[in-house]
Amino acid sequence: MSRDPDFESLTDELSSHKVYCANCIHCKLFRAPRGTAAEYGLRVKCAAGKWRKKLGEEKIYKYFTVIRRTLDECDAYVPMGETQEFLKELRRSLPIKDETYTPARTEAP
Ligand code: SF4
């Protein structure tokens, strides 16, 4: 039986004492414009307003880093599923770098 090496390393890194923002209902994915008007990158933010810079400005992160967003605790954490299974699926689908996306054309040329 083959094993998923990514999941093994992720499981090794997982801590039951940490909160993983990626598994929280308040962790929101959105499109951030870049380059030409049609191009965008994927970003995440905390809809509960917990990600703040020192001066209070909202922090956003590149989507491909979302699995690294962890906290020791968060009073607003609302899990969306069992953490290990959720992160296993997320790691499989996450891009490995900050990609630029362009919407698929639907109209005829
Ligand atoms: S509410 Fe807390 S756990 Fe949820 S995304 Fe925001 S900071 Fe992370």
Describe this protein's structure.
This protein has a domain at 21-93. The chain contains two helices and five strands; from the N terminus they run H-E-E-E-E-E-H. The chain has helices spanning 5-13, 83-93, and strands at residues 19-20, 27-33, 40-46, 61-62, 70-71. The strands form two sheets. The protein has a three-stranded antiparallel beta sheet, with no helix packed on it. Strands 1-5 form a two-stranded antiparallel ribbon. The longest helix is centred in the C-terminal third of the chain and has 11 residues, at 83-93. The chain binds iron/sulfur cluster. Residues 19, 21, 24, 26-27, 46, 48, 50-51, 71, 74, 76-77 line the site of iron/sulfur cluster (SF4). Residues 19, 21, 24, 26-27, 46, 48, 50-51, 71, 74, 76-77 line the site of iron/sulfur cluster.
* Tally of individual helices: 2
Secondary structure: number of strands: 5
Shape: globular
Largest sheet descriptor: 3 strands, antiparallel
Q: Kindly estimate the percentage of residues that lie in beta strands according to DSSP.
A: 15-25%
Structural class: alpha+beta
Our measurement of the CA-to-CA distance between the termini, rounded to an integer number of angstroms, reads 49 Å
Unreliable stretches (pLDDT < 50, length at least 5) are 1-11
Q: What's the overall average pLDDT, rounded? A: 84
Strand order of the largest sheet: 2-3-4
Instruction: Spell the H/E element sequence.
Output: HEEEEEH
Small-molecule binders here are: iron/sulfur cluster
